[in-house]
Amino acid sequence: MPYGLTLTSPASEEVPLLPSRGEICYYKLHTRRPLRSSGSNSQQLVSALTFIPKISVHKGAVFKCQVSYAGKEKVVVERVSEKFTILSAPEVSEIQLSEIQNDPDVVSLTVRASQFHPDVITFRWFCQGGELSPVASQASSSPRPNSEGFFSAYSQCKLPQSELEKGGTKVWVSVHHIALKQPITRETTGFIKRPCVSEIISSTSLPDQALTLGCEMTEFYPPSISVTWLKLREGEHDDREDEVIEGGEMWGPIQTHLRLYRATATLKRRATNQQRKERGGGIICRVEHCSLENPIERHWRNVDIVAPSIPPSISVCWSGEGVGVFSLVLKGGHPRAKLVWAAGGPTLSPLVSSETEEIGDDGQKELKSVCALEKSTSLLTETSKQLERERNGDAIKTKAAVTDPDAEGIQYIDEKMDGETNEIYMDEETRAQVDDYSDKERGEDPSALHINKVPLISGHREDERARLRVCMEITHPALKLPVYRTWTEPNEQTSSSA
After folding, report:
1. Among 37, 264, 319, 410, which residue is least crowded by beta carbons within 10 Å?
2. pLDDT of the residue at 205
3. How many domains does the structure of the chain reveal?
4. Nearest to 416, CA basis, from 398, 397, 439
5. Where does the record place the Ig-like domain (predicted)?
6. pLDDT on residue 369
């Protein structure tokens, strides 16, 4: 007695239900040998079907079991099933708590359900120990299907932060679905605050050249926090994870306020010759906390940090018109150093400088910094000198100022430092001439060297003024403290120029 099984669609029970778009489905027919019934000559045949359900194929499908005798095509018995319903229980996340950016006094609680079918699902929120009950957003629980036809949804409620800060407030949510025998419950208690995560800081210890990376987490609660260090793949794109790095350490968490903690994660790595040569890749510090919907990540690039070679003193040369050009050349180093010039008498004022990068004769990268200045003692005298220089000669270039200390006709580029005071002594016609010429020269010759005017306070005697000091500050990641270079005017120059 042959038998067969047919799957038909609900739209037309005459047509077999076949996978669409070339999809492959798994079916297996289980058959037990005919069994003779006790006390009679009749036999029993048991047949069963096992398959992996797919929503796109089996949703609403109808199963038919047909029986016919051997050698005959006529179906003698047929049984039809009810429409097939796919039940998939939801996967429910823990409650995620987060602060609302526009309203720091309110905390948002979120729970997510995924991979469920059909799409009808219910979230019920409860609160105990607080004066207010959370209210779920109506729009947040609308299920959405994924590419496989399974649904996902989330529900949110909001509570004042003051309620959670009490520590005894308990909030829980129950998730109800037809595929569940019992509702799934998730709960949370107490105050929560997301951590502030710093950028990764690196330092190198001598003499073993071990590299230490550090990342600080502050102002978080509860104190349970997790840090994972990951190595990035090498190459141009450093956004792909390669492997987890073992050996990280955690200092803390340590309590800083009533319900706030901080901690520091460190990772020590001994640099190898191969790592020193590699410029690509990097390291990620991944921070996970119950207040975060997604982990916070900080990236560190795998680059060498090398201090530059700094000369022992500043080079200086003076032009015939009393303009001093100060320069300093740094060799090598990575990344680029930060340079700040300042000058004055008892107190120093910042100066405008010009920096250029070149490759030296020895193949090393050179950073050249040039700063020009003129000593200023009388506002009226300086205004006259300014106008005379702007009417005569061309602007001096940075390179010429260093190589030719006697060059004439140094151009003033910007007089904003003393602009308001100078206007008191200049009539409208003179001021217009200066402004027009300065604007024209600034547009035609952007490479002209800026001349800083440094006011010097007079001493106790009328023929005595303060000694000029010119200072440069050099900061670099490889230097624990800034390096300073200072030039001080000799006493004889102070007396002769007074």
Report:
1. 37
2. 63
3. 4
4. 439
5. 195-297
6. 94
Low-confidence ranges of the chain (pLDDT < 50): 1-22, 138-139, 235-239, 276-278, 379-384, 386-387, 390-435, 437-444
pTM tops 0.70: no
Query: What is the pLDDT at residue 143?
Result: 77
Residues 256, 107: one domain? no
| 8 A C-beta contact, residue 299 and residue 200 | yes
SS3 386: helix
263: left (phi over 0), alpha (psi -120 to 50) or beta: beta
> What range does the domain containing 38 cover?
3-80
* Residue count of the chain: 498
Closest C-alpha among 86, 87, 156, 90 to residue 121: 90
**Could you give the C-alpha distances from 370 to 317, 318, 399, 408, 456, in angstroms and in order?**
11, 13, 9, 18, 21
> What per-residue confidence (pLDDT) applies to 147?
78
CA-closest candidate to residue 382, choices 456, 462, 320: 456
User: What is the chain's percent helix, strand, coil content, to nearest 5?
Assistant: 15, 45, 40
For residues 65 and 169, state if they share a domain: no
**Strands annotated E in 272-379:** 282-288, 296-301, 315-318, 323-331, 338-344, 348-350, 354-359, 365-376
